[in-house]
Structure formats: structure tokens, C-alpha cells
Specification:
Strand content: 15-25%
Largest sheet: 6 strands, parallel
Structural class: alpha/beta
Distance between the termini: 26 Å
Helix content: 25-40%
Shape: globular
């Protein structure tokens, strides 16, 4: 099955913003079917409405499904995986400037973090996990993303001078994300090949 990639934007954002379209083009050239989800009322977001929108776009994820979240999109994806599809797997999860706890200054988003994330469940079902933060992010400070990476036992990448990874920070391309996705896909192919060879040996 061909890989599917879903990019989930954050608070007060849209699919046309930041680096989303650049990444869509990069991955489409690699043969990946890419959807940048458009979530409703991003200036006054509602958790249930956002989860319902993801349900329409993603449906049930599987091992050929790759998920990327930015800012509020990160906890939204985690809620989607743990609340809507608690048994489903996914090929990989990449979270940019994410958080799973209340962040000072973002009290309007507290409903998204009301239910604790079941990190153990995510770890068990999604083998490829990474979190990226900017060390000068003044919206979601890097320590929130670091704690999120620890909660998910995910690889952590702390980048200097990237702000909140927005177009206004000058981040309109994101080579690290594209490279990590390539690594995720390559590691999945290798694992599938090992599994296939093992099954062939057992049947011979």
C-alpha cells in the first residue's frame, strides 16, 4: 500500500501557512499521498470539532500512515490516536513545537490538554517517533516539547533560532522534517524485508 502523510496545523493556522505546502510538494515527489488537514475555526479551536475533522481526513491510521503535527496539531494528533483510535497503529509520528500540558499564555487551549496522553499506548503502537523544538520558541518553550519527547520515548531535536517554526520566523522550508520522514520510510522498508524473510524461512 502506498504511504499516506497527514500534516496537522495548529492554533490560528491553515494549510497554506508556514512550511506545510513546501513539505507536501517534497513528499509528493517521493510518491507519498499528502493531505494537509484543514481544521475548523482555528482562531477559536474546539477539541471535539478538530478530532471529527481528522476522522474525516485520516480515518483509521495504519502502518502506512505517517502523521505530522505542528504546535496545537501535536496534542490534537495524540488525542486522536489515544481517544478515537486507541488500538490502531501508524507508521510514524513527528511532532513540531508540541506540548501535552497547559502552556502559560495559551490558556484558551486548555481543553486540549485536559485528558492526559497515554504515552505507553503511543509507544507500543507507533515505532517511529520524533519531536522537534526550537530553543528560542517563545510560544511553546522548548522544555515543553522536551517533556513531550520523554513522555513518548521519542527522538528529540532541539534547533537554534527557529522561533515557533512559523512563516513569520522565516521557516517556510523544513529539510529536517523531510529527511526524518525519509529515514522513517527507509527503516520501515528494512523492517518489512526482515519480517518477510523470516516468514519465508519459517514456511520453507
Amino acid at each position: 500500500m502506498a504511504s499516506r502523510l497527514f500534516i496537522v496545523h495548529g492554533y490560528m493556522a491553515a494549510p497554506e501557512h508556514h512550511w506545510f505546502d513546501w513539505l507536501k510538494q517534497q513528499m509528493a515527489q517521493a510518491g507519498v499521498a499528502v493531505t494537509v488537514c484543514r481544521l475548523p475555526a482555528s482562531h477559536t479551536p474546539d477539541p471535539d470539532a478538530w478530532l471529527s475533522a481528522l476522522e474525516e481526513d485520516i480515518g483509521e491510521p495504519d502502518e502506512d500512515t505517517w502523521l505530522i503535527g505542528h504546535s496545537l496539531g501535536c496534542i490534537t494528533l495524540l488525542n486522536y490516536l489515544t481517544q478515537r483510535h486507541p488500538q490502531a497503529s501508524a507508521g510514524g509520528l513527528l511532532l513540531v513545537a508540541g506540548f501535552s500540558e497547559p502552556v502559560p499564555g495559551l490558556e484558551a487551549l486548555s481543553a486540549f490538554t485536559r485528558t492526559p496522553v497515554n504515552g505507553t499506548s503511543v509507544i507500543r503502537r507507533i515505532k517511529q517517533r520524533a519531536v522537534i523544538a526550537s530553543l528560542n520558541d517563545d510560544i511553546v518553550p522548548a522544555e515543553y516539547s522536551l517533556r513531550l519527547s520523554q513522555q513518548l520515548a521519542a527522538r528529540f531535536y532541539g534547533l537554534p533560532e527557529h522561533g515557533h517554526f512559523q512563516g513569520s520566523d522565516g521557516v517556510v522550508t523544513f529539510p529536517l522534517v523531510a529527511e526524518l520522514l525519509k529515514q522513517f520510510r527507509a527503516e520501515k522498508v528494512t523492517a518489512d524485508e526482515i519480517s518477510f524473510c523470516g516468514e519465508a524461512e519459517q514456511s520453507s
